[in-house]
Amino acid sequence: MAKQLGVSFDMSNPQPTFENPCDPNSKNVIFLDACHMLKLMQNTLADKHILYDGCGEVIKWEHIRKLHGFQDKEGLLAANKLNEGKAGCR
Q1: Are 82 and 71 in contact (CB under 8 A)?
Q2: Structure pTM?
């Protein structure tokens, strides 16, 4: 959607604004909500189980499950909001 509106998040030439279709004299700005983006990534990783970063390195849901198991065993809560009901942490 952002690309179709003419918005670019390319760090070498960012263009976060687009013309307001109702008022050509004003612009709208798009920004990504970091908390929401993290939640989307967590849910995607939980669904797919394996993702790859920009360098081709593997990101595994199993690592999140192991972190949860360690926290549970040690009685810790590292403020990452992992719990038994969270996206398959069982």
Answers
A1: yes
A2: 0.58
